[in-house]
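Deliverable D4.2, example record:
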Amino acid sequence: MKDLIPKESLMNKILLIRGKKVMLDSDLAQLYGVETKQLKRAVRRNIDRFPTDFMFELTRDEYNSLRSQIGTLKRGEHSKYLPFAFNEQGIAMLSSVLNSERAIKVNITIMRAFVKLRELLKTNEELNKKLEEIEKKYDKQFKIVFQVLQQLMEKPVKKRKKIGFKRAVEA
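Output generated by the structure prediction step:
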C-alpha cells in the first residue's frame, strides 16, 4: 500500500478550507479506486453518518478559488457539481460506507498522513515557543540575532516598483 500511495502526494491532497484540514471527494475517489459520482452516491445514501463537522460541500466561491489555485482545468475532467470536503473523521467514516478492503487500507494510510501533519505542526509550534523563551532570556545580548531569526520566520514582503510615466521636471 505504501507504494500505491506516496506520502508526498497524499500530503499535497490535504487542503486547508474554512480553517480545517480536509480532502476533496475527487481525490478520495481516486485513492479508493472508484468514480467520484460513486463516492458521492454512497455518501448521500448514508448522509446521517456525515454531519457538518465531518463533511461539508464547498460553496461556489470556494470552488472557484480552489480552481484558480490549481490552474486551468481541462474540459470534461472535473465535475460540474460542487465537491464535498471531508475532514479526518469524515474520511474515517468513508471506510464504513465504502466497505471494501482497498477502502480500509487507504483509510489507514490517510489517517497516518493526518497524524504526521499534526506532528509537524506541533513541532513548529514548540520551536516558536522555545525561540520566544530564549529571546526573553537573552534579549539584550542577542537582539540582532533574534531580529534576523524573526525576519527569516516571517514571510518576505516584496517591494513593487511603481508603474507608469514620470513627468519631466521643468527648469
